[in-house]
Structures are given as structure tokens and as C-alpha cells.
Amino acid sequence: MRQAGSLLLLFFFSLSAATEPLIQKIEVKKNSIKVTPGQKFAAVALQRRSHFISYDEPKLDLRLYDPSITIMPFFFDAIASVLRSDLELSVEALDRDLFKSIEKIRATLKRFHPKVSWNGKLVPKKLIKHRFDFPQNRLLLPFSGGIDSIYSLLTNLDKEITFVTVRGQIDSTIPNQLHP
User: Fold this and answer.
1) In whole angstroms, what is the distance from residue 170 CA to residue 179 CA?
2) Could you tell me the CA-to-CA distances from 147 to 143, 152, 154 in Å, in that order?
3) Alpha carbon of 177 to those of 22, 40, 45, 148, 168: distances in Å?
4) CA torsion sign, 157 to 165 to 76 to 134?
5) Which of 1, 28, 66, 136 is the most buried (most CB within 10 A)?
6) Can you give the pLDDT at residue 52?
7) Strand 51-54 relative to strand 121-128: parallel, antiparallel, unpaired?
8) Does this model's pTM top 0.85?
9) Residue 105 in 3-state DSSP?
10) Does pLDDT of 83 surpass 60?
């Protein structure tokens, strides 16, 4: 029994030593965040040195949020490259539901690009279960300007709406945006 425990402990430490950090540094200001990716990931997957997001909402203070939430935009921008990289990368903490969605993302990417291996792994050191409570009279609306988002807007005019618009995501149909 003691030998099995030692082997498990040895396996855990070798696994920890094998992972490279996905994120080197996170700089959070009141309503902006700058994520500097880890060196190994940046070298194989990214064309830029950092990921910067700024929000126009003056009341927003990102310093009040857990980093596992504030890194979500970076996660969505990077996850396809992580999975394609064949690297095993670690993050300090990640939302539990977001972590569970990685295999669904991998499966979807495999359907669209069956010749790519998609063997990269993301290993969170800690999983956090967040609870999001929104008042009934408020709505967080992903808004692209398309027919679905306009319909959602028009059918919810009685609510206080916060629009979420994402631009600058990786388009995997453009060559050289996802490189191993």
C-alpha cells in the first residue's frame, strides 16, 4: 500500500513538472485586463505577446472578480490553440463548468478539422464553482447584430440589458492563425 502511494505521489510530481503555464502574468486594472501567455504557449500558438481587453462600462471593477472569471475571454481566444498545440499547459484556477466544456470544444473542433490531432491539454491546479445570480429584470445579451440577437433584444425590451459583443476571436478558417 505504501509503495502504491509513493508511485501515485511520484506520478503527480512528474505530471506537475511536465506542465507549462498557459499564463505568465495577469495585470488587472479597474476595467481592463492584460494577460501575458506563458513562453512555451506563446512560442507555438500565438502571434502576439499579450491579450488585452478593455470594457466601456465605467462601474465595472475587474479587481473585485476572481481571476478564474477575468481570464475567461483569454481562455476562449486561446483554447483552440491550446488543444492544437500538443502541449500540456496549466492554469492556477479555472471555472469548473468552463473546464467541463473543454471536451465538447475539442469534439466540435475535431468535427470541423478531422486531420488535426487536438491533443493539447489544459490542467487547472484548482477548479472553482461560481454561482451567477442575475436579478430577474436584467439580461446579459450576447449581441452580434444578427437576426437572433436583434430578436432577443426586441423580445426583452422590458429588462435592463447589458450587451456583450466579442470581436477579435481566432478564425480557424484563415491559415496560420492556429499553428502547432
Assistant:
1) 12
2) 10, 9, 10
3) 18, 17, 8, 28, 12
4) negative
5) 28
6) 85
7) unpaired
8) no
9) helix
10) yes
The CA distance from 108 to 129, in Å, is 24
Measured in whole angstroms, the distance separating CA 149 from the mean position of its chain's CA atoms is 23
Query: Of 4, 1, 2, 85, which is closest to residue 37 (Cα–Cα)?
Result: 85
Which is nearest to 29 in space by CA: 51, 50, 60, 74? 60
Residue 180 carries which side chain, given as an amino acid letter?
Answer: P
Question: How is residue 161 written as a grid cell?
Answer: 440589458
CB 79 within 8 A of CB 102: yes
Between the CA of residue 26 and those of 32, 84, 99, what are the distances in Å? 11, 23, 19
Grid cell of 115 as nine digits:
486531420
Lookup result for grid cell 465538447: 104
Average pLDDT of every residue of the chain? 80
Task: Name residue, grid cell 491550446.
Answer: 82
Cβ atoms within 10 Å, residue 27: 11
Cβ atoms of residues 104 and 111 within 8 Å: no
pLDDT tens for each residue of 122-156: 999 999 998 877 677 888 787 777 788 788 888 98
Q: Is 44 helix (H, G, I), strand (E, B) or coil?
A: helix
